[in-house]
Design brief:
The chain has helices at 3-8, 185-196, 249-259, 316-335, 372-395, 403-413, 423-434, and strands at 17-19, 40-42, 63-65, 86-88, 109-111, 132-134, 155-157, 178-180, 202-204, 208-216, 220-227, 232-239, 268-273, 281-285, 292-293, 338-339, 348-351, 355-358, 365-366. By secondary structure, it is an alpha/beta fold. The strands form four sheets. Strands 1-2-3-4-5-6-7-8 form an eight-stranded parallel sheet. The chain has a six-stranded mixed sheet with strand order 9-13-14-12-11-10, covered by helices on one side. Strands 15-17-18 form a three-stranded antiparallel sheet.
Length: 436
């Protein structure tokens, strides 16, 4: 059915969600007829450049999506919608973010990815409920100092901007766990060095025979492929080239190369040269099909936490092996000056016999340009992400979990960033628990 026609005919009374992507150039006023029920409004993929000044009439609105439109300014009127928890204006033309648009005490998740924003107002720090802030692909050189007061902030994307340095207060936020900062001037030299290095072999495109698509993410498409005369089974990731919610694909490629080889890491084995369209790509190991994804990505409701299948369950021994394998992969990355940036169960493959494999370097970045205290603080931020993973693994154990693993989880989740353990410490403890 034509949703717009249904709306205008008055046949959507009581609707809690409306999705309209039909070339709109003006906000349909009939939406206000749903003010007493509407909670989610998705106007992405239109040609809108303004919202009505009385948007606050939508007093029950909790989620507003306006991505892929023509907004040059974040509309001030969204600040009238006091129930808003999630706001998405990705891939517009936004240069200006007025303070009035951010008078949102319930806001948990703000997406301003892929715009032209140079500065953000101090009012952003008044969004005390903020958990997830997506700012990749803008022109930011600084963050408002007021953000230091956002103690609930857990995920921050500032990749592909113009930062010459990281704000010092950022490294002390008590709940920050997932931070992406690649593709900024302070990180550029390390990225270029990684891409120029000969640490992985170059693979000529004609040596590959592309097979079926295995998956697709924001940054690229993964295919099964055969390599060379022996038709060695491999996986091939071909990058799309556009900025993603995590940053630039070339930053992902740089981090993948810098990561090097490790038994529990799905890392690059080769870099592709000579694609007929100039597309960049990587050759990776083809993972045994018995491995499956540990969880799904966060939902609108869970915000920063992954979503597990209702029947997800394992023994404490399996949980220990997964935790050990991921700690081992992360210890390897940190030793090589690489931050993962997205240590989540949805980026982990597992099976009951083989433990866990960590992949997806879309949010990864490098610490080469940072001093030692900064690098260590960033590594301790990722320990909180590991604490979240341990918590999720422990909650789904079918038998009594090891108390040492519970204690490690608590240490990883503590608010004092500097007091958290390193991955080397975590790995030693988990290996000790698995020793006969």
């Amino acid at each position: 059915m034509d949703t717009l026609a249904e709306l205008r005919a008055g046949r959507l009374a009581g609707a809690r969600r409306i999705d309209l992507s039909c070339g709109l150039t003006e906000f349909p006023r009939e939406i206000f007829d749903l003010a007493d029920s509407l909670e989610t409004l998705n106007l992405s993929g239109n040609a809108l450049d303004a919202l009505p000044g009385d948007l606050g009439r939508l007093h029950r609105l909790r989620v507003l999506f306006c991505s892929d439109n023509r907004f040059a300014q974040l509309p001030e009127s969204i600040g009238q919608c006091q129930a808003l928890e999630m706001v998405g204006f990705k891939a517009n033309r936004i240069r200006t973010v007025p303070a009035a648009a951010l008078q949102l005490p319930a806001l948990r998740w703000l997406i301003l990815t892929d715009n032209q924003i140079e500065t953000l107002p101090e009012a952003l720090g008044q969004c005390a409920a903020m958990q997830k802030l997506m700012l990749a692909g803008n022109r930011l050189r600084a963050l408002p100092e007021s953000l230091a007061a956002c103690s609930r902030l857990e995920l921050l994307r500032i990749s592909a901007n113009d930062f010459e340095a990281l704000p010092a207060w950022l490294l002390a936020l008590p709940r920050l766990s997932w931070l992406a900062g690649a593709g900024n001037p302070f990180d550029m030299q390390a990225e270029q060095a990684a891409i120029a290095a000969q640490s992985v072999p170059h693979v000529d495109w004609p040596e590959l025979k592309l097979g079926p698509k295995l998956g697709e993410g924001a940054s690229g498409v993964i295919h099964q492929a055969a390599l060379g005369p022996a038709s060695q089974p491999v996986a091939v990731k071909l990058f799309k080239g556009a900025v993603t919610s995590d940053g630039w694909p070339h930053s992902e490629m740089a981090a993948s190369i810098a990561a090097g080889a490790h038994p529990t890491l799905i890392a690059a084995q080769g870099r592709i040269d000579g694609h007929p369209d100039g597309t960049q790509g990587l050759v990776m190991a083809l993972v045994d099909p018995s491995f499956r994804t540990l969880a799904g990505p966060p939902s609108l409701a869970s915000c920063t936490r992954d979503v597990y299948a209702d029947d997800a369950q394992w023994t404490s021994g399996v949980a220990l092996r997964i935790a050990r394998d991921i700690a081992s992969a992360m210890q390897h990355l940190h030793a090589r000056g690489v931050l993962h940036g997205d240590l989540y169960a949805h980026n982990i493959l597992w099976n009951a016999q083989g433990g866990g494999l960590l992949g997806d370097f879309g949010a990864a970045w490098m610490t080469g340009a940072l001093d030692a205290p900064q690098a260590q603080a960033l590594q301790r931020l990722e320990m909180r992400a590991f604490g979240c993973l341990l918590e999720e693994l422990l909650e789904r154990c079918s038998d009594a979990p090891p108390q040492a693993m519970v204690a490690l989880k608590d240490r990883c989740l503590q608010a004092d960033v500097s007091a958290r353990p390193s991955f080397a410490e975590a790995l030693a403890l988990l290996q000790g628990e698995l020793s006969p």
